[in-house]
Amino acid sequence: MAGSTFGTHFKITTWGESHGRGIGVVVDGCPAGLPLEEEDIQTFLDRRKPGQSKFSTQRKEEDKVEILSGIFEGKTTGTPISLMVHNKDQHSRDYGDIASYYRPGHADYTFDMKYGFRDYRGGGRSSGRETIGRVASGAIARKILEQLGISFLTYTRSIGPVTTSITPEKLLQSDYRETSQGILSNPLYMPEESSCHKAQEYLETCMAQKNSAGGIIECIIMGVPAGIGDPVFEKLDANLAKAIFSIGAVKGFEIGDGFASAVSTGSENNDPFKMDHGKITPASNHAGGILGGISNGAPIIFRAAIKPTPSIAATQNTVNKQGEEIQISIHGRHDPIIVPRAVVVVESMAALTILDLMMEHMGSRAASLEQFYRYHN
Amino acid sequence: MAGSTFGTHFKITTWGESHGRGIGVVVDGCPAGLPLEEEDIQTFLDRRKPGQSKFSTQRKEEDKVEILSGIFEGKTTGTPISLMVHNKDQHSRDYGDIASYYRPGHADYTFDMKYGFRDYRGGGRSSGRETIGRVASGAIARKILEQLGISFLTYTRSIGPVTTSITPEKLLQSDYRETSQGILSNPLYMPEESSCHKAQEYLETCMAQKNSAGGIIECIIMGVPAGIGDPVFEKLDANLAKAIFSIGAVKGFEIGDGFASAVSTGSENNDPFKMDHGKITPASNHAGGILGGISNGAPIIFRAAIKPTPSIAATQNTVNKQGEEIQISIHGRHDPIIVPRAVVVVESMAALTILDLMMEHMGSRAASLEQFYRYHN
Amino acid sequence: MAGSTFGTHFKITTWGESHGRGIGVVVDGCPAGLPLEEEDIQTFLDRRKPGQSKFSTQRKEEDKVEILSGIFEGKTTGTPISLMVHNKDQHSRDYGDIASYYRPGHADYTFDMKYGFRDYRGGGRSSGRETIGRVASGAIARKILEQLGISFLTYTRSIGPVTTSITPEKLLQSDYRETSQGILSNPLYMPEESSCHKAQEYLETCMAQKNSAGGIIECIIMGVPAGIGDPVFEKLDANLAKAIFSIGAVKGFEIGDGFASAVSTGSENNDPFKMDHGKITPASNHAGGILGGISNGAPIIFRAAIKPTPSIAATQNTVNKQGEEIQISIHGRHDPIIVPRAVVVVESMAALTILDLMMEHMGSRAASLEQFYRYHN
Amino acid sequence: MAGSTFGTHFKITTWGESHGRGIGVVVDGCPAGLPLEEEDIQTFLDRRKPGQSKFSTQRKEEDKVEILSGIFEGKTTGTPISLMVHNKDQHSRDYGDIASYYRPGHADYTFDMKYGFRDYRGGGRSSGRETIGRVASGAIARKILEQLGISFLTYTRSIGPVTTSITPEKLLQSDYRETSQGILSNPLYMPEESSCHKAQEYLETCMAQKNSAGGIIECIIMGVPAGIGDPVFEKLDANLAKAIFSIGAVKGFEIGDGFASAVSTGSENNDPFKMDHGKITPASNHAGGILGGISNGAPIIFRAAIKPTPSIAATQNTVNKQGEEIQISIHGRHDPIIVPRAVVVVESMAALTILDLMMEHMGSRAASLEQFYRYHN
Q1: A332 Cβ under 8 Å from any chain C Cβ
Q2: ipTM above 0.90?
Q3: Does residue B311 sit at the A interface (CB-CB below 8 Å)?
Q4: Does the CB of D292 have a partner CB in chain B at under 8 Å?
Q5: Which residues of chain B have pLDDT under 50?
Q6: With contacts defined as CB-CB under 8 Å, which chain A residues touch B245?
Q7: Which of A322, D82, D222, D233 has its CA 20 to 30 A from that of B268?
């Protein structure tokens, strides 16, 4: 199944396994004339790099990106941009019994059922390293969106039972640059220091118990103009849902008030419109910036639930390929939590989605089409 | 934007507005040789018909489906199946001021921002009537899936704060036919009578307060073989998320333990594998039947959060097209809750998604391809 | 296989068989705000109507189009436009032995091989009536293109051995409106009266011999701006080739000098650039308006070869479903030539292709994207 | 525009420019379990390698392919196969004035019109080197097709005015392996020695005159089962037409009798069916193996017209970016004819098309779907 392509206009195709030659992505449909260099992409990749705190794997992964095509004299040419990160220690490892049994919570069994066999080294294609291609291409999308006045705040909302008390509303009132840097300078990417400390304590307990934790990532997208998305199958929220759910370990997605809106009432949940400096604006944002599948100009706010890392050192029951029930204990350099490293992946998938739908939107009105061609011809 | 097509292999394209000539869907890619008649489809459409309880709109909508193409001698021919439901009272209504202002919680404003104007009659294209095409085509998908041994249980999990105490586990232990009929014979499609009564009381209070309610729909899909879905962007859960989120009013989607898994730990959340009658089977089902984006053979279980109906009789603030702040109160025959009527829509979108990915799956292995062509040539 | 959808942005999905309830098309992605009424479409459908000369079938097909959705207050809303033509005499006919044998040159055998059986009435889905949906949607594309300054001249270049001596160059020098009307007022849509007379004589001979004829259709597209199309798989000419080859009976497609360029040399075949009123322009047009898959601003010129109508009254050898070799003679009201009726189909497919790629083109440059969003936000 | 992806099931995405870091392709959707090594691909790449005769460029291009992902223990895993060829002398060259003017017959001007600027080094993305990705992925498609019993004969039919007198019928009667090797051992890939000599003489004259030549490539595909392709927009011939026309320099495409069928009559052009060893078979093959867009089991035969190489040393008129009319003469190591090197490109695109549609075909009948799932579950 050809499932490694995402997007229609700004289309990315990722490739690569955990322990193959490398990981890469081809970005096709990037508009021409965008200044782009490796550093623009590396900055984003570094946000998902492991080894930055004791709560992420201590594996050493440099993950230096190389641009192989699509750039000429420092600018995108409109043709495919091929990006690659070489895998460093692809040959060194002993995989022990991992080939012979099915790890609970992993895709080992389902790969065997789908394909008849699997590349078991480090998770193969379902390794977290697959997200390198998403982040590298997301960095380009983010750069384009920035030029259109669109910015992102993405952070760890909760780790296990520990939730930050800072709300999106509060974050939106703060200075963007400061808030953004505050989040990035925090090892868990969780705004608010006190929650962050509690989360670290919780994670230490998990690790002591050879266990792992999950959490929730929240993303705020500011500056998306009203009118983006489609009223039926290509709703903006439906596309975001798919994009975010395509990230491994995501088990839930909600927009605006999300599941809380199911216990709300119409009068509470509806966002009345008001005039704000001559512009029609929702007075509240229970909807999370989307109505009927189309952006309404308010910040888009969504959350993703991430399950606990399935690789744990504690003993687990499972079966092997011969169909024998066995007990295993997974050792190695695994993240006790992937939430902080997944923050930039969530942001990247959101950016890719928004940009793609914005490009699609350009043809929505006959008048715009005419205006475009009158100007360009 | 061409956003009214869903699916790649079993591809549907819907059309029609609330108060136009009718609502329809073209189903393209339906395998040839399936016995199909209008009654197969009508049964499903009747499940979304309004006016069956006092909690749904008292509008009279007959919604008789007509098959316009694609059937010959009682069987599908493999060419497009065009289905249509005529709108009955499309000319009768006075729309009052609805054209001039933006209803909170509706897509009025976002349509104007996207397209420059809108068909304001009854919500136009973003009316709930748009789902007729989904259900009609979903009925065909359901019929095919049935022949492959795949069945569905879809029901109202909660209405406002009232949640049924019956778990998916319990439903899965019961007799399928009986459970299924029990759910269908209930006006709220909520299993368990006592919860259902409480939900009805809650809805009556809402109505008395000119207010509306939301709720949660749960869907269990049994019999999906292991191996369906793709490990990267076309994950089975990602496709389900998009499909379900493309239904108006959905604000959240979760699979298996969903958001609860974010506060769980690895040792709790992982589903150990065991042998069951010689077959590898997950011993629990926190994952909801999907691992790494691919089905693992366990029942697929997901939930969708539905927001309260935005059309309420209580007074609301909003603005009109002239940018004046006004107060409105929406009268008319609106559902105080859409959850029960949305149950069959959720099931239909799930069926369309599963079938499409199953058709895609056929080419996953070189050996299957060879076997197919050796047999068919 | 879901093969009844064409286009990405201006996406059409056709449905219907020769003798079913009707023939239709859903146009999705039509920009909002275009004035559109049934008459705009009917004009084009009338160009493919049979019975206008003795060289087309004498069947009576009124083919009145109905707009079922997507228009509000006389303008497109940006949502799907559903168009339908009812089949008139779908019940009246006796199909005789047609169900039991395979007509040479028809798709009877290949349908059976693909689907296991077929709707044999009047050719079913592979009837020429399938093109109604193409022409109806092509009429909308043509209307949009007209507003962008793009016009078409499509005509019969040859019938059997009779070729018009008028060249595209000459047609381009003439007054467009006059030429266009001259072609339309001619029963064979062949410019130049003397060739037309010879062609009629040739056709009369064919008919007398219970035989049929083929021919070549030429299409000139004026006003397409330079820059449309893509340099690799989505070349403008590649898309035109597919669009035209998707019309039944087309056996060849060439652009510019086409097959003649294979015997030319570089110095003859290259079109030098020159300055024309301050604009870079090709001095000749061997390329037919496309270089490297992208329009160069010159008129786009292509030709399609149409095979002789396969339904002939002369005796033919074939086999029946039982595998017996038999002789047949096809009676009924068949066109001795379909070329004139196919002219508007070729033009429609070309219009759909050009419009789709023009909409795609809007996102080609970062600067245009910025300009669009700065203006629209 | 995201136009560098081809195929739906067996989906390829190519990237890279003539003088960038390299050229590559990502093959997504390749069925799992196919034995594959670099040598399988290299064999095909070597067929397009320049420098094998004096009639192709004397540039030295080693074009060694590397498999970067998707293979484990010598077999495809079902996940993306990333292939790359490094460009050798990407830094060495002086491009002189090529950046400042528009070469006739090249895509220089159209790139500038589309993207605002271009990577002018060696043609950038529209270089013939772009076809490396097509051939590398085509090699994999060919290997799968071989296992399904499908084989190809692709060769130079004509060069300039010199046409081989050997017909497809004759080639089909000969021993496949011998014929195939005979073609490959010939520097022009033209069957029949005497024509080949004449063609060489013709090319020498062209070169002496600083000119270039075009020609026609013919492709015969044997063993495609009846039933492949779709009756409407996704006709097998329409897909072949697009695939072949997406190759640079192709100006015409025809199937079976092609343009000759336009001057034929129904009784000549129809292929009667007969019984052949108990199997229904067309008695002749004017149709080229396709009826109504669907394969009929006979060999598929098509031809592509290739224009003369536009880079010629003779003086040509053109304009520069400043809009001044100038004279140029293109020097460098250019092929006086690209036809022989394009033979394997045509075959590759045909293989990719056939395989993709064969995979699509698997879901055509309800009975096959059931059989597949009953067997696999």
Answers
A1: no
A2: yes
A3: yes
A4: no
A5: none
A6: 235, 237-238, 240-242, 253
A7: A322
Chain C interface includes A279 (CB < 8 A): no
- Cβ distance C362 to A363 less than 8 Å, yes or no, reads yes
| 3-state SS track over chain A | CCCCEECCCCEEEEEECCCCCEEEEEEECCCECCECCHHHHHHHHHHCCCCCCCCCCCCCCCCCEEECCCEECCEECCCCEEEEEECCCCCCCCCHHHHCECCCCCCHHHHHHHHCCCCCHHHHHHCHHHHHHHHHHHHHHHHHHHHCCCEEEEEEEEECCEECCCCHHHHHHCCHHHHHHHHHCCCCCCCCHHHHHHHHHHHHHHHHCCCCECEEEEEEEECCCCCCCCCCCCCHHHHHHHHHHCCCCEEEEEECCHHHHHHCEHHHHCCCEEEECCEEEECCCCCCCEECCEECCCCEEEEEEECCCCCCCCCEEEEECCCCEEEECCCCCCCCCCHHHHHHHHHHHHHHHHHHHHHHHCCCEHHHHHHHHHHHC
Residue type present at position B139: A
d(CA C68, CA C64): 13
How far is residue A314's CA from residue B61's CA, in Å, rounded to a whole number?
58
* Cα torsion B305, B309, B315, B318: sign: positive
Residue C126's closest chain B neighbor by CA?
Answer: B79
The count of C-alpha atoms lying within 13 angstroms of the C-alpha of B221, restricted to the half-sphere facing its C-beta, is 34
DSSP-derived pairing of the beta strands C215-222 and B65-67: unpaired
> Which of B11, B14, B68 lies at the smallest CB-CB distance from C2?
B11
Stretch 248-277 of chain A: residues touching chain B, C-beta under 8 Å? 248, 250-259, 261-275
In chain A, residues with a C-beta closer than 8 Å to the C-beta of B337 are none
Taking an 8 Å cut-off on Cβ atoms, the answer to whether B216 and A6 are in contact is: no
The string of pLDDT tens digits covering residues D84-115 is 999 986 555 666 678 899 999 999 999 999 99
Chain C residue closest in CA terms to D163: C263
Is-contact D79 D70, C-beta < 8 A?
A: yes
Pair D159, D186: CB distance under 8 Å: no
For B248, the token pair is: 């108006």
Contact B233/A246, CB-based, under 8 Å? yes
Tens-digit pLDDT string for chain A (377 aa): 799 999 999 999 999 999 899 999 999 999 999 999 999 999 999 998 765 666 666 555 589 999 999 999 999 999 999 999 999 865 556 666 788 999 999 999 999 999 999 999 888 999 999 999 999 999 999 999 999 999 999 999 999 999 999 999 999 999 999 999 989 888 899 998 899 999 999 999 999 999 999 999 999 999 999 999 999 999 999 999 999 999 999 999 999 999 999 999 999 999 999 999 999 999 999 999 999 999 999 999 999 999 999 999 999 999 999 999 999 998 876 789 999 999 999 999 999 999 999 999 999 999 999 999 988 76
Would you tell me which residues 51-90 of chain A have a C-beta closer than 8 angstroms to some C-beta of chain D? 66-70, 72-73, 75, 77-82, 84
Q: Chain C: residue nearest D214 by CA?
A: C262
CB within 8 Å: A144 and C376 = no
Distance of CA B138 to the CA centre of its chain: 9
Q: State whether residue D221 sits within 8 Å of chain C by CB.
A: no
Least confident of D103-112, D272-281, D325-334: D325-334
**For the segment C19-45, what is each residue's pLDDT rounded down to a tens digit?**
899 999 999 999 999 999 999 999 999
Q: Where are the alpha helices (DSSP H) in D7-80?
A: 38-48
> pTM (2 decimals)?
0.97
**Closest by Cα among B342, B346, B349, B350 to B55:** B342
Residue A212: closest CA among chain B residues belongs to which residue? B266
Looking up tokens 């868990």 gives A188
User: Is C77 close to B115, i.e. CB distance below 8 A?
Assistant: yes
